[in-house]
Structure formats: C-alpha cells, structure tokens
Amino acid sequence: MTRRHWLDWILQGVTGLYALVLAFPLLKFLQSGEGEAEEKVTQIKIEKNVIPDPGTSKIFKFGSKPGIIIRRPDGSVHALSATCMHLGCTVDYDKSEDKITCACHGGRYDASTGANISGPPPAPLPLLKLEEKDDGFYISKA
Ligand code: FES
After folding, report:
1. In ligand 1, which atom is closest to the CA atom of 88?
2. In this predicted model, what pLDDT tens digit does every residue of 52-83 receive, in sequence order?
3. How far apart are CA 103 and CA 101, in angstroms?
4. 109 C-alpha to ligand 1 centroid (Å)
5. Is residue 136 within 8 Å of 48, Cβ to Cβ?
6. 108 lines ligand 1 (CB under 6 A)
7. Could you tell me the pTM of the whole model?
8. Atom of ligand 1 nearest to the CA of 84
C-alpha cells in the first residue's frame, strides 16, 4: 500500500467522522419531534391476557416512557411508572418478593403503592390511573 493510499484512506475516515458529527444533532432534533408526540399520549389500553395469572407483570410503553402493570398474588392489579426514581433505569416486578426492583443499584418499591422501600431511590414510583373494563385495562396519568 502506498503512502497516497494511506492518505486517501485517512481522509475518507476523517470525512466520515465529520459527517457523523454533523448528522448527530440533526437526528436528535428529528427524534425530539417524535418524542413530543409520544408525550401527548394520555391513555393506552392493555389487553387483559398480558397479565393472566397472579404474580405476573408486563412492561409497556406509555408515550416515550416505560410503565409496568402488575397482577399481585392477591389478584389486585396496579399500574405504575417503570422509570426508577434514582437514575432512571427501568424497574421490574419480582414475583418472589412481591416487590418492584431496580437491577441498576438495588432499589426496591412497594408493588401496590410504588413507595420506595430500600436502596437509593429518593422518591416513590408514580402511580398510573388504572380502569379495568370488559375489553382490557385502560391506563392514564393519575
Ligand atoms: S437507577 Fe434504580 S436504583 Fe439506581
């Protein structure tokens, strides 16, 4: 390989990186418009069969944020934000403990109220309004 080939190769690499640097803000801008539309979501419907048995849960998308719907062992159903109040990881339901847990730093929340129980989360998970109808669960901001 000649020195000219190396220079061409390096120049193409630098040009490609420059194009990526220019494209990144444009992509973020275009994504923000989509995010705004998703923020306007006020209600979603979840089919009842996604949490068929006690001790099951499902993460769902509420606009641009994750939510979680839980059917606890006593049969009660709850919907909460699934964004951890510590640093924003997505939480999950731990059936064995009947608690909502965050794998990032070990935060734990009450599965009914969202109250922060232990770990670093400084605040409870926000509850979502849940209406159970014949054709599914209707979830909206509380
Ligand atoms: S992000 Fe959930 S405990 Fe830190």
Report:
1. 1
2. 899 999 999 999 999 999 999 999 999 999 99
3. 6
4. 11
5. yes
6. no
7. 0.74
8. 2
Start-to-end Cα distance in the chain: 66
The token pair at 141 is 């901001």
| d(CA 84, ligand 1 centre) in Å | 6
What does 60-107 look like in DSSP terms, one character per residue? EEETTEEEEEEE-TTS-EEEEE-B-TTT-PBPEEETTTTEEE-TTT--
What is d(CA 19, CA 25) in angstroms, rounded to the nearest whole number?
Answer: 11
Strands 56-62 and 43-46: unpaired
Q: Which atom of ligand 1 is nearest to the CA of 89?
A: 1
Q: Answer whether residue 99 shows pLDDT above 90.
A: yes
Distance 112 CA to ligand 1 centre (A): 19
Is the CB–ligand 1 distance for residue 119 below 6 Å? Answer: yes
